[in-house]
Structures are given as C-alpha cells and as structure tokens.
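Hey,

The postdoc asked me to send both predictions to you directly instead of through the lab channel. I've kept everything plain text so nothing gets mangled by the mail client. Protein one:
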Amino acid sequence: VGSVKETLSSQFVENCKGVVQRLTLQEHKMVWNRTTHLWNDYEKIIHQRTNTTPFDLVSQEEGAGVAVRVMKPLDLQPPKQGMPYYLSAMDFDSLLQKQESNVRFWKILTVVFGFATCAILFFVLRKQYRHHRERQHLKQMQDELRQAQEMNIEGGETLKNACVICLGNTKSCVFLECGHVCSCTECYRALPEPKRCPICRQPISRVVPLYNS
C-alpha cells in the first residue's frame, strides 16, 4: 500500500500512520440491574467517523509496474445481479466449508422442528378426536333416554328413579364430586375408563351407594 497524498496520523498512538482511519466515540458505564441485583457493563456508541486518503495497491514484486489506485476504499456495493456477497479474511475453500456446515445445521434443525410439530399435531388431533367421540356418545345416550322417556310416557310405564343408561334398573349410585344420581351399579361398572359422569362428563373420583327404601 502506497499513499498518494499525505498519510493519516493517529491522535492516540504515537508514530502510527495509515490510509484509513476510523474514530469511534464510545460511552462505557455501569448499570444496576433490578432483576439480578448486579452491576452490568453497558457500552453505547455515541459517534463514528471514518477518514480516508487515496492510496495505491502495488505488487510486492519489484519492477512489476502494475498499481491500482483506490480513491474511495470504503465504498462497498453489492453485486448488480442482487446476489449475496461475503467479505472475509478466509480463503474460498474455508468459506465454502463454513457455509456448507451452516446449511447442514439448518437442515437438521428444520427436520427436528418438523418432527416435533408433527408429534404435537398428532396428539392434539388425537385429543380432539377422543373428545368428539365422547360428545357423540353422550349425545347418543341423551337421544336414547329421550326416546325411552317418550315411549314410557305414551305407554304409561314410567319407571320411578330409572337409570339414565339402561332405563331398566333403579338409580343406586351417587357420583362424586359432581353429586349426580343417575346410574345403577351395573351400568357404572360398564362405563369405560376413565369413568365420567354420564350427565356432566366430569371425572368420577368415588362412588357412594344409594339405598332405596
């Protein structure tokens, strides 16, 4: 590198000269963190300025006679085709290997997140399907109960305190914690696990027998 005009001298380092000078005014202070109750370092850039002077890029070989004059060394522009570009001190092979490693990492991460999303979606759909089947089963039981009650009313054979499931036996179970009295012992034993109240669908924690006099 050969300076075309007068070189730039550093204001803080003695006998330090160059063709590109970058000045940064930075504030450094300690800030109290109310969450961790610790003092943390805080840095804030107040001002930045870059000074340049034209210079020539000359070959290290003597007598080459080839030089490139740089007028604006920091005027960096992307390619006209809109493609990405990299400014790095590494050689091409090292940069290519680094980019390929990044691509492999993101591919693996995408596959992992894809499997996790599919698993979550499967469990959500399974839960919704089970709830849908329970609602359909409850609706079917309510329809059968309504039809049986209508038939009993028409035939004058209404059974007092009849089980809402079989409509043939007398209610003999009190479901807790909801407190509904709606089932006989045989129908309670036939309920699928986990056992739920046929009326409100709340879980049955325990059953108290009901004795009819």
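Protein two:
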Amino acid sequence: MKLLGQFNYYAVCVPIYKNQLVFEVRSQYIAQPLEISFPGGRIEEGETPYEAAVRELREEIGVDVVRKLFDIEPIVTPFNSVIFPYAVEVDISKLKINNFEVLETFLVPIEHFSKPYKTANVDVILSPNEDFPYELIPGGRNYPWKRGTYEVMFYKWEDYIIWGITARIAHRTWEIVSNKL
C-alpha cells in the first residue's frame, strides 16, 4: 500500500510466545536508544512489508516465525511514517540477540495491554517554514491551519515503560486477540 505524499515505510513483527508479547530494549548504538519496541525497521526496495518485518525479526532477535497469526492495521504517524505491524507466533528457545541493535528482551502477558496505565495527548500543529508563500493562500499569515491531537498510551511492566506507537500496537494486539478467543 502506497500513500500519496512523501512517507517512510516501516514494518514490525509483534512476536507472541505462549500468550506473551516479546519486547526488546533498543541498544544505545541505534536511533531511539533504550526505547522499548518490537523488532522492525525500514522496508527495503523489492520487499513486501511482511518480508521486511520477518527479516528484522531474524536480524534483531534471531528467531524465525512459527506461523503468521494476523495483520494489524497500518499506522500513519503525524511525522510521515507508515508502519505495518504483523502478529506472529515465535519460539524464543533459540533466541539470539543482535547486541548492536538490542540490549535485552522481555515478555509481557498479552492481557496486560487491556487498559493503559496512563494516556496523554500531544497536539499536532502545522508550522509552515520561513519561506512559505503565504501570499498565495487565502488569509495569508492568518490562514486557519487545522490542529490535531494524538493520543499516547503508557503501560508499566516491572521497571519498563512501554509507550507511544509500541504501546498502541500492543493494545491493538490485545483487542484483536481478545475478540478471537
């Protein structure tokens, strides 16, 4: 699926092992260091989103997919990223962490994501660049730009805080799984 406009496309695997989600703590050597996430990354030329998600799963935590469980709806972020999440069953008995990308992994029962610990809103505001041609639009500098609000979820598990897009995907995974039971 391609969207009109300039976007960066990413894919993530939501690894599930015995009704638990497998999370990783990102290493200090990569973008968003020490954040909690699912295995994932940029979709490379010629790859499908699912192929990219599986590749990233293997690269980051060294496990293969036992079986694909379900697709999760793509997420379009306010910062020009499109993320394709896929829930997959994994066997972590052969876990092999790529220490350059991943500091550690941990498990959280899926039902933990039924209700966020906390939610907060972030305002999304359009802010035209200095060279924006205001003279070409009705109202000029007084144009009534639309604003939006982006809800951010937070979950606590032991000493970990799972938040943002990762929390949103975990919550959606719980919604889908709980409706299939």
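Summary for protein two, as requested: The domain at 8-179 is CATH 3.90.79.10 (Nucleoside Triphosphate Pyrophosphohydrolase).

Thanks,
C.
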